[in-house]
Every structure is written in C-alpha cells, then in structure tokens.
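User: For this week's homework, look closely at the record that follows, marking any run of repeated tokens, and judge whether sequence predicts the tokens.
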Amino acid sequence: MKNILFDLDGTIIDTKEGIISSLLYALKELGFDEIPEADDLFWCIGPPLQESFSILLNTKEKAKVDEGVRLYRVNYNKKGIYQFKLYDGIVETIKQLNQKGLNTYIATSKPKIMAEKIISYLELNDLFNGIYGAELDGIRSKKGVLISYLIEKEKLDKKDTIMIGDRKHDIIGAKENNIKSCGVTYGYGSNDELIENGADYIVHSPKDLLDIIKKRGAYNE
C-alpha cells in the first residue's frame, strides 16, 4: 500500500460547527418556518452540498438547490471555513506515513479551492502530494468520480491505493474504483454505516491507521 487517500471533513478535521452554522444560515435566509436543530443536520456532513440541499428543500429543481448552496457559501466563506479543529493524532499519523515514504492525498467532496485554503491555513501543504476536491459547480463532487480522477491524474496503481474516510460515500467511492477502503468511526459516520457499505477496514482513532496500513505491507518497522 503506497498511496493513501484521505477524506477531509470528519477524517482530518472536525468541521461540524462551520458546516452546520452555514446550513442554518442558508435555511433562515430561504425563509424556512421550522429550522431544524443542529443535531438533526449532521447527516449533511459528507455528501455533496447539492445532494444535501435537494433533500433539505425537498426538490430537484436546480435553481432552488443552487440558491441554497450559494447562501451556504456566503456564510461558509466568511467565517464557517475557519470553524473547525484537527482530530487528535491525525497530523502525527500523516507525518509518519510521509516518513515511511508513502504518498498521501486529500480526496474531498468539498470544493478544491476551499480544501486548499484550509490546508494552507493549517500550514500542512508539505504533508500531501496533492489536494483533490470538487469544482464550485459540483463537478467531481461524487466521491467515486473524484477518486477516479485522482487516480488517473496521479497515475496510481489501484492495488497499492486505499481510501480513508468517515462516511459511506468514501467506502462506496472506493469500491467503484476497485481500491481498498478504511472507515474511521471518530468522524460523522457510524460503525454500522461503514460496515453495511463494505469497508475493508475500520479504525477508531487516527493512530490506528498506521497498523492497518502496515498490515497491508506498506512498510516495515
């Protein structure tokens, strides 16, 4: 295992505060009579924004969905993007993978421009061989499409590649590309969600990732 693809939200950083506050802002601006409780919006973390707003607004009308996404980004770009925290031990884990000579990439449904801004803000650019995300218009927001694009651009060997993420979208996207997957339970997805969607491995903390990747023959002590 030489190539490690990391989801961002729920895997490297805990972004729920910024995402939920931006969702609530958008719904209020859209004139919702009954605004959901913050805890009832956690399911929106992980899927593409367009998909979440289609469900929230109960519509497939592109103009309405796009307006929800636009309002979300008004708040997110202003302050929500910085309302996050790193998961304990994740930076140290990625550094150790780098030291072992492995390639590490970001593969997120979040727009690439925002992912790049976050990684630069954290001064973690040197930890990743590449940062891949969706375009602002939603292109490559589906995880399977994004992974396929990353693999092609970086010319990766699928048998040496694994996707690490906290939601079913990460696991499904990996399967669509015939690569291994590892679900993390410290993010926003449940253990049951990851198992039901066929995660090859499941870990409960960032440091446990090292054991999984070592077992795949990526390195020796």
The two ends are 15 Å apart (CA to CA). The chain has a mean pLDDT of 93.
